[in-house]
């Protein structure tokens, strides 16, 4: 086919994700759904997911299918025993992927991190350019979570954990080097990937999950009372640890100072330990909320005692966009470039969280100014227009490079 005919403004994208991105509730879903919407502006998108597909929630132009070998299975329970950041994909599903490529005729593939690395040979065989979208440097996340284990489990885990970490680090390195382009979510992750010998990585920051949050009012009345909202995936280990610390160590101290304080914890798939907190004074748990706009409007603060994790922090981004005052550990806002006392209030010990919250309620005008600065920072640095342009530019560049290489080969 002549080059002039092959180059088109239409780009067909095949996306492979672990969970179905729709409805986008947790961090991974939000990012995957945003990427699909971005490339959907260039042409049709086929999202192949390991988890249960939900076509009804997908936007126009996006088709969602589940790999048949994962029907009635939790993909996260199918992880490789030796390399825990790799999900075992059977030959029948690899054949399904190959057939989908023939049927859909994509121009490019976007893979959700190293978890779906077993699909890589299929895409390499097809000659498709492949983007590896790394939500986290998984080996670093693994190590950070291990450091939060109770001391008895940490002692038992030392030898096994060290060996596993080295395997995961090698997976991060080799997979990032085997694709056409690797996307990371922050400067921190880009530097870390280089340090372990991986790809240099293209920074594609996380988006604000729901830009309607920008429209919520910022006024002094919102910050006069200790009404706290925590939003996040409630089955994700770093979030579970944070919520348990918030409920057991921080919230009793808050209630001692302000008996009428309220704490709402909302998110996907609450762990059993979190569900049990419903009986605690001043705490409500809402699993799998349909909408977060209303709850965000009714609260003034979010407390994020996050001690581990990776990527860029969607919880903090969403809270700042919504006008919530963020009181957080440095780890909770890592990768966002925030300045303490300018964009958020830093707290590390439980007593710090309590002091910052109760003092903030005494200075609502200052809190409104801080919330306004934080929202402006997020809007300028993480706005959808900038991200859409970057993502579409990188996708077009890779597809054009592939077409040029094919033309030279044919010539």
Describe this structure in words.
There is one protein chain. The chain is α/β, with parallel strands linked by helices and 411 residues long. It folds into two domains: 8-207 and 384-410, Rossmann fold (3-Layer(aba) Sandwich), CATH 3.40.50.2000; 211-382, Rossmann fold. It contains 14 helices and 13 strands. It has helices spanning 3-6, 27-40, 91-104, 120-126, 138-146, 151-178, 187-195, 237-257, 272-275, 293-297, 314-321, 350-362, 364-382, 384-410; strands at residues 13-17, 45-49, 62-66, 108-112, 130-133, 181-184, 202-203, 227-231, 262-267, 283-287, 301-304, 325-328, 345-346. The chain has a seven-stranded parallel beta sheet, sandwiched between helices. Helix 5 runs antiparallel to helix 6 and helix 8 crosses helix 12. The longest helix is centred in the middle third of the chain and has 28 residues, at 151-178. The radius of gyration is 22 Å and the shape is globular. The model is unreliable at 1-7 (pLDDT under 50).
Distance between the termini: 11 Å
**Largest sheet, order of strands side by side?**
3-2-1-4-5-6-7
Helix amount, in percent?
40-55%
Shape: globular
Radius of gyration: 22 Å
N to C succession of SSEs = HEHEEHEHEHHEHEEHEHEHEHEEHHH
How big a fraction of the residues is strand?
5-15%
Low-confidence parts lasting 5 or more residues at pLDDT below 50?
Answer: 1-7
Q: How would you name the CATH homologous superfamily of the largest domain?
A: Glycogen Phosphorylase B
Summed over residues and divided by their number, the pLDDT gives a mean of: 90
The number of distinct β-strands equals 13
Q: Structural class of the helix and strand makeup? A: alpha/beta
CATH topology of the largest domain: Rossmann fold
